[in-house]
Specification:
The complex is a heterotrimer. Chain A contains five helices and twelve strands. Chain A is of the alpha/beta class. Chain A has one domain: NagB/RpiA/CoA transferase-like (Rossmann fold, 3-Layer(aba) Sandwich). Chain A has a six-stranded parallel beta sheet with strand order 1-12-7-4-2-3, with helices on both faces. A four-stranded mixed beta sheet of chain A has the order 8-5-6-9. Chain B is an alpha/beta fold. Chain B has three domains: about 5-15 and about 295-395, Alpha-helical ferredoxin (Fumarate Reductase Iron-sulfur Protein, Chain B, domain 2, Orthogonal Bundle), CATH 1.10.1060; about 40-290, NagB/RpiA/CoA transferase-like (Rossmann fold, 3-Layer(aba) Sandwich), CATH 3.40.50; about 410-464, no CATH class. Chain B contains 24 helices and ten strands. In chain B, the strands form two sheets. A six-stranded parallel beta sheet of chain B has the order 1-10-7-4-2-3, with helices on both faces. In chain B, a hairpin with a 5-residue loop joins β5 (about 205) and β6. In chain B, α2 (about 15-40) packs antiparallel against α12 (about 245-260), α3 crosses α12 and α16 packs parallel to α19. The two termini of chain B are about 50 Å apart. Chain C has two domains: about 1-130, no CATH class; about 140-250, Rossmann fold (3-Layer(aba) Sandwich). Chain C has helices at about 20-25, 25-40, 55-60, 65-75, 90-100, 110-115, 120-130, 155-165, 185-190, 190-210, 220-230, 240-250; strands at about 15, 45, 85, 120, 140-145, 170, 215, 240. In chain C, α2 packs across α12, α5 (about 90-100) runs antiparallel to α6 and α10 (about 190-210) packs across α11 (about 220-230). Chains in contact: A-B, B-C.
Chain lengths: ~200, ~475, ~250
């Protein structure tokens, strides 16, 4: 393919050569993309939770609330990141079946998946998942309920703050609410390929 | 007289299709505008800035492309280049053949539509399945997308339910929730069986080599969680200079496309999965596609390459709203398509030279464009090009201007014509076989001609 | 757009470019323009050799023909005085379109110099002369159509400022103001189906607001909308903003 590379780059050079001057890269103030509707928050979790609800996400701040939510939805079989399970298992009654290895041959056997978040963005209600921080990409995606476990100090104020500290990771995913589509007549349907319920659990 | 193809298409579009296209474009446009202006102090400044950033990229592709190639390689991705559509299809095929791969899942990529990848792969015995709900429906219907963000904006739920039934996806049911659940069940097995996940790229950061992908449904995430190989098809214009610039572009893209603060899933991919991760691709390929882009870059319409494919221009366009995307006979419809499609057509420009004519030049597209592309100016430049190259499809229905220009540069002749024009008031115009007159009078009353009256009045005042 | 680079207006002498629509059809708009400018204290010159701004050929894609007409305008409107047009569209042709058509022409400088002293009438009154209120009286509910070629200019805010200052005027709101009426010059005859559909939609929005009349700073849009309404057998009253300003003066 090296010849296509040379061809393309030669064409690019040829196309740009006649330009007398080239457009400079503008510097821009990050303040410009701050949403004016959002006041600077001291409690980033509170702001994050409020914004997450606006995109139909579910913020929870106690394991007991998570268990109640799962019981209410009759979501009883699930997966949990093996590193997180020890801190949660006592809160889950015996009606729950929770595995710590995700078996991709039976993805529909899992009603929920609990994995770790690496961060969050308060102004948009966004969870940050990374490849290295997520114990299984599929477990965070295939079950109907995804629970991202978050610590308070991981929350960034806004998109620009999150972009400024992007970790070296091959697959960073920003998750803003449950999976959705409006392809059919513009009607909003949640849970297309990914979770229909997106939980952020503060620990 | 030859007629404009897009106007003819409009006349045959069923009323219910027109109504659904109109309703959903209008509602998306209105939500987009409210959101931008409510949430940001200076949305138009953001658009201008984003335009400058993308223009900088275009005018520095000679240095940015090799830089991003090196970054991607350092991140563990393999980089390929494809000068043409054929070369891009072949590159994908070779990657698959080298792995003995026969099944592909595709997350929405306009470039793959542009190079007609799926039919090509199918000819070579490879299943290439669309996973975006709308694109999936388009595929099982052997149809074409009619909007770059809302591919089935032209279909209603009853048509979709019928397609699902025909395709063995359950008995007829036109409830959108049921349709979506059935697609979920069907497609997740396909992800798990696939050998390769293919995606496009919304942005590629030259600074970090991160490929940025946005989807609401999660299909691109699934395509990167189940199959062992990831192929990215990306146009050479998709670069952004720095990661921080994504803060501006992502904010604008989601609001402009679907009136969201952020698309549900924004992925930053810089290479194959990490060693400890059980799911995801162990191999990643990035194919940079030219397919006519360098010619656009060399043209006076290079600004169109700033486009970030949000679809806001089609949502606001009064012509698109009347005709839908299929009228444009190309992968990219609407105002951006009316510029981009004829240019990407290369030697086949004359076949699409009528597209730039399908605009009242109202400028609404420029006003909403998140990267501030002066689309009306580009449409005008292409009209000039079509005229110079004698493209007949563009000329259809436009009265000849040469004689008029002669008249309008000779004051005496002009004045005589003005006074003479009054004769129209006494002619049976409805019987005259003058095509532009017919086209006007079929739906609009002619005003009374009063040529020369104003000049007479001006003269009279001077004397008094 | 060159109209962003205009020098402040110092003198009161102006040149009127009446536009071909006023020259051939809407002579009363031409008269109103002169009377409004004179009320604002201007001396109005009318170069007799004037014809058209060149826009029909420019939009039609025949830029060679358009340049011929623009060059004629450059020869006709000499000197330094502002050139005033009762049309946002024709004004935009001179301060924007012409600079595109002359990008690679040796006389680009002269063409752009004309563009920099070209004004749409209402923009000139408010932003050139600094007039922000208009005297007299005009009793009507007015729907002001935003003609598309005033996008990115101050013409519509200016028209709203003046109209709202006139006792008796009520400016009514209507839906989808940003949408085009469907005229688009030759578009109206080369794309008659789409043009008509767009106009019908615009009329429906306008009528829903139940105005007494439909106003604009461009007669071309009004010719199309008025023609559609008349053809339907449900005529609407159309007026250029200049006519409203002039008529207001008749009722001190």
């Amino acid at each position: 393919m090296s010849s296509d590379r040379d061809t393309i780059l030669a064409r690019v050079h040829g196309a740009l050569a006649p330009l007398a001057e080239r457009a400079p890269l503008p510097e821009w103030d990050l303040e410009l993309v701050h949403m004016r509707t959002i006041q600077p928050a001291t409690d980033l979790w509170a702001l994050f939770a409020e914004r997450l609800k606006l995109v139909n996400g579910t913020p929870l701040s106690a394991v007991a609330d998570l268990v109640a939510l799962l019981e209410q939805g009759r979501w009883r079989r699930g997966y949990c990141d093996p590193a997180l399970w020890p801190q949660f298992k006592d809160a889950f009654p015996a009606i729950f079946t929770v595995e710590t290895a995700f078996d991709r041959t039976r993805v529909d056997d899992y009603d929920f998946g609990i994995t770790a978040a690496t961060g969050a963005i308060a102004e948009t209600g966004t969870l940050v998942l990374t490849d290295q921080g997520t114990s299984s990409r599929l477990a965070a995606l295939a079950p109907w309920v995804h629970v991202a476990v978050l610590r308070r100090e991981q929350i960034h104020a806004d998109i620009s703050a999150a972009l400024a500290v992007m970790p070296a990771d091959p697959n960073i995913v920003w998750v803003t609410g449950p999976s959705k589509t409006a392809d059919v007549e513009g009607i909003l349907i949640e849970g297309v390929h990914g979770p229909g319920v997106q939980v952020a659990l503060l620990v | 007289m030859a007629k404009q193809l897009i106007d003819q298409f409009a006349a045959t579009l069923p009323a219910d299709k027109r109504a659904s296209v109109y309703q959903s474009t209008k509602s998306t446009h209105e939500k987009r505008t409210k959101m931008l202006f409510d949430q940001f102090a200076e949305p138009n400044r953001l658009r201008a800035l984003a335009g400058e950033i993308k223009q900088h990229v275009l005018e520095h592709l000679d240095t940015l492309l090799p830089a991003v190639e090196a970054k991607l390689q350092a991140n563990g991705a393999r980089v390929h280049w494809a000068a043409t559509a054929e070369a891009a299809c072949t590159a994908v095929l070779r990657i698959m053949q080298a792995r003995g791969a026969t099944k592909m899942v595709k997350a929405k990529t306009m470039v793959s539509e542009e190079i007609a990848l799926a039919p090509f792969l199918e000819k070579h015995g490879i299943e290439a399945l669309e996973t975006d709900l709308g694109e999936f429906i388009v595929q099982i219907d052997h149809d074409h997308p009619s909007h770059i963000v809302r591919p089935i904006i032209h279909k209603n739920r009853r048509e979709i339910a019928t397609s699902f039934e025909r395709h063995g996806l359950g008995a007829y049911n036109d409830d959108p929730q049921t349709i979506t659940r059935r697609a979920r069940q069907f497609l997740r097995q396909k992800y798990l069986q696939a050998d390769v996940g293919l995606t496009g790229a919304n942005f590629v950061s030259a600074e970090s080599g991160r490929i940025v992908l946005v989807t609401n449904e999660g299909n691109s995430r699934f395509s990167l969680a189940a199959p062992p190989c990831h192929i990215v098809l990306v146009g050479i214009e998709k670069l952004v200079p720095r990661d921080r610039d994504l803060g501006l572009l992502l904010n604008l893209l989601a609001r402009s496309a679907t009136a969201q603060q952020l698309t549900v899933y924004t992925e930053f991919i810089s290479g194959p999965k990490s060693a400890a991760q059980p799911d995801g691709p162990e191999e990643m390929h990035v194919i940079f596609v030219d397919n006519g882009r360098t010619e656009v870059l060399a043209s006076e319409c290079r600004e169109i390459l700033r486009c970030i494919r949000c679809g806001a221009c089609m949502n606001v366009c009064p012509v698109y709203r009347q005709v839908s995307g299929h009228a444009y006979r190309s992968v990219y419809p609407g105002p951006v398509g009316a510029v981009l499609s004829p240019l990407l057509a290369g030697k086949k420009f004359p076949e699409l030279a009528d597209l730039p004519k399908a605009s009242s030049l109202c400028g609404a597209c420029h006003e909403v464009c998140p990267v501030n592309i002066p689309i009306p100016d580009l449409l005008l430049r292409l009209r000039d090009k079509a005229k110079r190259e004698g493209a007949r499809r563009a000329a259809a229905g436009t009265p000849p201007m040469g004689a008029w220009a002669l008249l309008a540069s000779q004051p005496a002749a002009w004045k005589a014509a003005l006074f003479g024009s009054k004769i129209i008031n006494y002619l049976p115009t409805k019987l005259l076989p003058v095509p532009p007159l017919r086209a006007w009078e079929d739906t609009r009353a002619l005003p009374e001609m009063r040529g020369g009256e104003f000049r007479k009045w001006m003269k009279g005042r001077k004397k008094s | 757009m060159l109209n962003a680079e205009r020098k402040p207006v110092t003198g009161k002498r102006v040149q009127l470019m009446a536009t071909c629509l006023c020259d051939a059809i809407y002579d009363d708009v031409g008269r109103a323009t002169v009377e409004v400018l004179e009320h604002a204290g201007c001396t109005v010159d009318f170069p007799e050799g004037q014809t058209c701004c060149g826009q029909p050929a420019f939009n039609g894609g025949d830029w060679a023909a358009a340049r011929k007409v623009v060059r004629h305008a450059v020869r006709t409107f000499t000197g330094e005085d502002p050139v005033i047009l009762p049309s946002g569209s024709c004004a935009a042709m001179l301060f924007h379109g012409a600079s595109l058509a002359f990008e690679h022409e040796p006389d680009r400088v002269e063409v752009e110099a004309l563009g920099r002293r070209t004004w749409e009438l209402i923009d000139f009154l408010v932003n050139g002369l600094g007039i922000t209120t208009w005297p007299g009286r005009f009793d009507a509910k007015i729907a002001l159509h935003r003609s598309c070629h005033t996008r990115g200019t101050e013409s519509i805010p200016a028209a709203l400022t003046l109209l709202r200052s006139i006792p008796g005027v009520e400016v009514v709101e209507f839906g989808e103001v940003e949408q085009c009426c469907g005229f688009g010059g030759t578009f109206s005859v080369s794309f008659p189906n789409i043009s008509t559909a767009m106009g019908t939609l615009k009329l429906a929005h306008l009528r829903a607001a139940q105005p007494d009349l439909l106003a604009s700073v461009d007669m071309s849009c009004l010719m199309h909308l008025g023609g559609l309404a008349a053809h339907e057998g449900k005529p609407v009253k159309i007026m250029h903003v200049a006519q409203i300003l002039r008529d207001a003066l008749k009722h001190p």
